[in-house]
Amino acid sequence: MQLTPDLNAPTPAAFSTSATSSSLPGSNGTGALHLALAAAVTGLLGGAAQAEGLKVPAAAPAATWQADAAVLLYREGDGRVTALEPVISLRRNDGNDRTTGLRLTLDTLTGASPNGAVAQPTAQTFTSPSGKGTYTTAAGRTPLNSEFRDTRIALLASHERPLGTDQRGSFSANVSAEHDFASVGLSGSWTRDFDNKNRTLSLGLSTEFDRINPEGGVPVERGVAFAGTSKSSDSRYVVDLLAGFTQVMSRRWITQVSYNLGRGSGYHSDPYKILSVVDGSTGLVTGDRYVNESRPRSRTRHSLNVQSKWHLTQDVVDLSYRYYRDDWGISAHTLDGRYRWELGSHGGSGDGGPYIEPHLRWYRQSAADFYRTWLTEGGEYVSGAAGRSPAYASADTRLAAFTGQTLGVKLGLPTGQGREWTLRVETYRQKIDQPANAPGALRSLDLTPDLKAFTLMVGYSRPF
Amino acid sequence: MTAAAQPAAALLQPLPGGLWRGSFEAMASPCELLMERAGEPADDDEGEARRLLQIACDEVRRIERKYSRYRSDSELARWHRAAAGQPGQPVQVDEESAGLLDLAALCHQLSGGRFDISSGVLREVWRFDGSDRLPPPDAVARAAERVGWPRIGWQRPQLTIPPGMELDLGGLGKEYAADRVLTLLRAEGQRTGRDRPLLINLGGDLVASGPRSDGSPWYVGIEQPIGQTPQADPGSTHPTQPAQPTAPAGLIALKSGALATSGDARRFLLRDGVRYSHLLDPRTGWPVQGAPRSVTVAAPTCTEAGLLSTLAMLQGEGAEALLAAQGLPHWVLR
Amino acid sequence: MSTLAPTPMRPSLPVLCRSRRVRLGLGLMALPALLALGGCGSLGVQPWERDLLAKPSMQLTVSPLEAAADDHTYFSKEAATGGRSFGGGGCGCN
Fold it and tell me: Poorest-confidence range of A182-196, A377-391, B31-45, B240-254?
């Protein structure tokens, strides 16, 4: 899903553009104008640098390039998913404020992912999605679909340019493919500055078309699991609207509010996920045993985001909050904070020094209306030819009620001439709400184990 | 445009209080160089002073010759000729010019477009002779179409001037020359091992190398708009000291650094009780609204002081705010 | 540097916005407050005061590559998406 090109353009991506008119490096006192002039004049007069660290913004050369590369390593505990994601991005500014960029992402996934069935006091065996084999889960463990190996490749191309006084436009196209999923998308945005670029309004539209081509075909939603498929593929398309408003509050404070409205139509279910049908008193699988999940064929999402950044004497504080709500009954709060602690001692003159940036994120979401940890035989679900099943049901923990906490730290090491190395380490922990009224044997099992994940990301950027 | 007639030679005379005063005409202004007399035999010292004066005079005239818009042999004229002769083709400029153009570009950016060295063409329609004759609006509009620094192709070291447009470095010239003279004289003083306190004053834009050898400041008179005496920032809500409590009105005490003034003492138009300052807003072609009568700024170099006073004037009503934010001594007269 | 009497510096915010409560409230409240900005029309800075805001560390998205990687990770683990700008492509991780 892609909305605006986010390719590290010299003027930041559409919805955060406002303080872009000047490319002056920093100064920590009042009299910024005077200091900028002083630097330029001492350069002109050939005198010794009176303002150390300040550089005259040179007239734009013919074209400048910026290359960014990074590798992300993501690893979940308990033998779950491991992902390795190298990415490289190249941007070109033609010297007249027009930027073109290309970003290539590779994503290799290995490991196992929960298949939606609940743990049982005995071992369980499932047919793998390709239909060619089976896998077994030990007693008491949450079933994981171990045949989870995939490589995704994604390409994003974008262009951004001024459209007139105080206006900018951007356009981007993206394509992504993995063995069972492909997507293409287009997006465009327009931004307008007001009041000496102190205020920026931005509007964006994005569309995406996805084709889902699961191994073994698309299972019959709500149907008994492992019982054949209805068709080989399905699709969906998503349209997003984004409106953003950025305001410079003071020399040290900028804030942005944005609202995102998205609508998806088509196949939204996860073709590899099932639910367990359990007995209401014993908690053991019974009847049809496992059924394919089923999600609505449309989804409307709202998201309201507020972000503020404050430049202290040298350090920068970044705080944001997001409220999310969709018509599947999920609402979520996200609180994110970063503190960039500049280690250099130049008195804040420019981003020249190393920094450490601790990061805290707190996330809380409510469950989807149709989220079920299991289905109870005889309740919502009745097995057999004359049975019934709820229209929508899913045991995907992504739709469950949970709290997510991220704790991380980033280390930035500029190495001169605009080059920078970054190292980021984060831990993420998801505590899923324990389901109420677990029947029988399920009561003594950990049905919704915490997700623990560790992230390592190394990045390098360099202009040339 | 023809080359100017041979300029008059520089004149050196002793002043009471142990000073030499060198004077010459350049950049359509009276220029003076005040040097402290060194404690050596009078003859050697006078020869030395003459040499320094000649260096100063030569440098100011060099800059004038290079960037004058009135001379056909100036570097500026070469740029305009190249632009006229080969439209769209860039001309290579030297390091010094590149530095000045970068400075002009920076000021354009920092002032939000109010400082614009391509605005000289507006001179063709505006005549500030104290009368009430305003130019016709369509003439102003036509001239304003030929103004706009963003349309000038400046990619160091290549300059491309579109047809119909002209550059004018007059807003930078005098102050830059004052700083250059100080740089050269300081270098000369270090070379000969005789570093003497001196002050360069080019028509009111001045810079001093340091205090007098006894530590006292240089006293300089500043030109006032008719009928006004200088007061320290009348808009400030906090009590301030006057420039120099014991000095006579009209004098400023300068220990080191530079002083530059922008003002409209004699160049304005008056019509229906509205005073049109000679400072034109390049974005519209019309005079800046609410510009102060004069702005004087003190800064480490004359170029900075001059640019800050010009930028403050261009802000019109916002002059005091701009200057207040810089933390430098300044005087605004309205 | 000249030793002429310095003119005292004024606070950089106009009177109306000097109140800390007003500033905090304005910053942290959502859309309605910012849309009603007519009442506090002197927010913002002059072009020459953009030095700090122009620093890379003060951009709303400092590192797009990291933001994209994070967005992708959270997209595959959480239900909420979007809000700001985000690039990249779709993926099958729902």
Answer: B240-254
**Closest residue on chain A to B109 (Cα):** A22
Residue C21 DSSP one-character state: H
User: In chain A, which stretches have pLDDT less than 50?
Assistant: 1-30, 47-61, 347-350
- How high is the mean pLDDT of chain B? 81
- Asked if the C-beta of B323 comes within 8 angstroms of chain C's C-beta atoms, the answer is yes
**Which of A139-143, A360-364, B164-168, B285-289: highest mean pLDDT?**
A360-364
DSSP A299-362: EEEEEEEEEEEEE-SS-EEEEEEEEEEETTS-EEEEEEEEEEEE---SSS-SS-S-EEEEEEEE
Please state, in angstroms and rounded to a whole number, the distance separating the CA atoms of residues A25 and A41: 16
Tell me the mean pLDDT in the region B135-157: 89
Q: What is the pLDDT of residues C16-51, one digit of tens each?
A: 444 555 454 444 444 444 444 444 556 888 766 777
Domain ranges within chain C, ordered by starting residue = 13-39+51-77
The reply to whether ipTM tops 0.95 is no
Q: Is some CB atom of chain B closer than 8 A to the CB atom of A62?
A: yes
Radius of gyration of chain B (CA): 21
Give the residue from A333, A336, A332 showing the smallest Cα distance to A361.
Answer: A336
How buried is residue B240: exposed, middle or buried, by Cβ count under 10 Å (0-12/13-18/19+)?
Answer: middle
**Do the Cβ atoms of A44 and B102 come within 8 Å?**
yes
Per-residue model confidence as pLDDT tens digits over C4-14: 433 333 434 44
Min distance B239 CA to chain C CA atoms (Å): 9
The answer to whether A59 faces chain B, any CB pair under 8 Å, is: yes
> Is B234 an 8 Å CB contact of chain C?
no
Minimum mean pLDDT range among A32-46, B1-15, B49-63: B1-15
The CB-side HSE value for A99 (13 A sphere, CA atoms) comes to 26
B186 forms beta bridges with: none
pLDDT class of C82 with cuts at 50, 70, 90: confident
Residues of B in contact with A37 (CB under 8 A): 103, 106-107, 110, 303-304, 307-308
Identify which of B304, B277, B295 has the alpha carbon closest to the alpha carbon of residue B130.
B277
Q: Which of C10, C58, C85, C94 to mutate to test the interface with A (most CBs of A within 10 A)?
A: C85
**pTM to 2 decimal places:** 0.62
Q: What is the pLDDT of residue A101?
A: 95
Which residue in A218, A204, A128 sits closest to A172, CA to CA? Answer: A204
A59: nearest CB among B102, B299, B322: B102
Answer yes or no: are the C-beta atoms of B309 and B212 closer than 8 Å.
no
Strands A199-212 and A234-250: antiparallel
